[in-house]
Amino acid sequence: MSMPSADNATQVNKLARGLIYIVLILFAIYYLLPLYVMIVNSVKPLSEIREGNMLALPREFTLDPWYTAWSTAQIGVQATGLKPYFINSILMAVPAVAISTLLGALNGFVLTKWRFRGDNLVFGLMLLACFIPFQIALIPAARILGMLGLAGTTRGLVLVHVAYGLGFTTLFFRNYYAAFPTELVKAAQIDGASFFQIFRRILLPSSAPIIVVTVIWQFTNIWNDFLFGASFGDFKSQPMTVALNNLVSSSSGVKEYNVHFAGAILAALPTLFVYIVSGRYFVRGLMAGAVKG
Amino acid sequence: MPTRNQLQSIVPKLVLAPSFAMILLFVYAFILYTGYLSLTDSKMLPSYGLVGFENYSKLWQLPHWWRALTNLAIFGTLYIVVCSVLGLFVAILLDQKIRAEGFLRPIYLYPMALSFIVTGTAWKWFLDPGIGLEHTMHLWGWESFSFTWIKDRNLAIYTVVMAAVWQSSGFVMAMFLAGLRGVDNEIIKAAQIDGASTMTIYRRIIIPLMRPVFLSAFVVLAHLAIKSYDLVVALTGGGPGQATELPATFMYSYTFTRNQMGIGASSAMIMLIMIFSIIIPYLYTELRGGPRQ
Q: Which residues span the membrane (chain A) (predicted)?
């Protein structure tokens, strides 16, 4: 949908297009600048950051800040680097994403193809759960996790992330399965196929796109979570985001900006990687989450 | 046969039950529990002595809480307005048959994949007068350049807006771009035949057609603004002083560090009411039409 140029205004049009390109490139610079700052300063020695220009390329290239951020930086009380927290984040995100996606798929299947009285109310209540401010859940969740013996554990964080991810995963699959032909499900039922057979043999094989969208959405949200990690995690379970914040905001000693930048990139790498590899699906997830609820 | 059929009709509900039960517990029971705590004399730990609405009246007398609400009003308004204007503007420019669109769009969107902690870290040092932008300008010879907003009690909240807009505006752009792509070309052709200029077509026809996108963007951004927590923690830690305190950081500090759990719980309830008064009317109108794809 764009305006075809009138023939007599080609000159003006060319100028206008040039301007548009310039503005678009300026915006690109604006969005890339913080990433550029993080990258170039993560490979400079500290003295060069303090005395030199933040936007300049490194005069002396060093990977030391990366080694420090990964394996020796002081996080909280221990000098472990970010590595153990990176592992914590993986151990938390992978099961939480897998469980919430599987449950979301089953829920979406039930809510579209096995409709029952009150199913819209059930869905509405699940959908509303996507939007609650988590502050409302912090106090009771801490108590429940304590009662279950899951306080400060990765399993506790997985449980919380599954609970608060279900609304979104159910929404994604429900909207996707709503367009799936119900006749196929009915025909399989008449042939005597069970609920799980229909799900596995008929629905799942055609669900790849929505599974990708859901997995990316959930992974990004869970990996980037800070509030739950800070509230319910301890040393053995705190995720990467919490460790990064501890690293950056620790007030003791010299501020090692280069190490902070390297740590920030390390924390961003997994979601950036997912975004670069499958940006198309990432955007689709954002839109599904936004436009449809 | 009937027993098998009966069994088959229970299975879907059994499949949905655990998810629904989890949501009922983690969302609705937790809301009730926090609501109850907000009426009690809970301090460091939950306690069940009812005190009526005392916490709420205390809350509304706290300058600290008013500060958080004022900040939310400033931050929320600017965040929503700037993201929408910028998002629409860039989307319209990108929609002019730009050859590099496939290259530019991902650049505008990638910040959405990052954790707010990463964004906060990058902007914290980028805006730091000692090593960031101000320092760089001085090195470039602009000696009088001064940018100390992040350290300024009256201006620090605007740095939170800057970082938040950087993170979310690309996403709003993607929403508008999808909306623009959905505009019927016939309407535009008809207007062009009538001699309307490009500007007029955008102002009178296309932008008014974006109403649903404005609404979606408003709902998404408003609820993100009310929930904002991580970004403030990473960027300013709520400071200098209480200059960038938001309701979410207020709730956390009253509940977990100041041992005023009753007041913390009542502030969480206020946040919930704010979000629900935006989300529930929106979901209601969206859901009435039934599932769409």
A: 20-39, 85-109, 121-145, 157-177, 198-219, 257-277
Global model pTM greater than 0.90 = no
A113, A174, A182, A184, B282 from A198: Cα distances, Å? 11, 16, 11, 9, 34
> Rounded to an integer, what distance in angstroms lies between the CA atom of residue A87 and that of residue A233?
13
Task: Give the mean pLDDT per block of 10 residues along chain B (293 residues).
Answer: 67 91 94 91 82 87 92 94 94 88 87 90 85 80 78 86 92 89 85 84 88 87 88 85 88 89 92 91 74 43
Of A114, A140, A290, Cβ closest to residue B220: A290
Amino acid at site A46 = L
Strands (E), chain A: none
Q: Is the peptide bond before B240 cis (omega within 30 degrees of 0)?
A: yes
**Chain A residues touching B12 at Cβ < 8 A:** 109-110, 114, 116, 195
Q: What angle do CA A158, A286, A243 make, to 5 degrees?
A: 40
Q: Write the residue in A35, A166, A245 that is nearest to B23 by C-beta.
A: A166
Q: Residue B50 in 3-state DSSP?
A: strand
A224-257: pLDDT as tens digits: 999 999 989 888 889 999 999 988 887 667 788 8
Q: Is B47 on the interface with A (CB under 8 A)?
A: no
Cα-Cα-Cα-Cα torsion B216, B221, B222, B223, nearest 10 degrees, comes to: 90
ipTM: 0.86
What span, in angstroms and rounded, lies between the C-alpha atoms of A214 and A289?
10
- Contact residues for A48 (Cβ-Cβ < 8 A; gap 6+): A58, A59, A60
Alpha-carbon distance of B222 to B224, in angstroms, equals 5
- CATH T-level topology, domain B56-287: MetI-like fold (1.10.3720)
Which residues in chain B are contacts of A73 at CB distance < 8 A?
Answer: none
Using the beta-carbon criterion (under 8 Å), do B30 and A3 form an inter-chain contact?
A: no
- Within 142-161 of B, beta carbons closer than 8 Å to A belong to none
Query: Hey, how many other C-beta atoms are within 10 angstroms of the C-beta on A10?
Result: 10
Radius of gyration (C-alpha) of chain A in whole angstroms: 24
For residue A7, pLDDT beyond 70: no
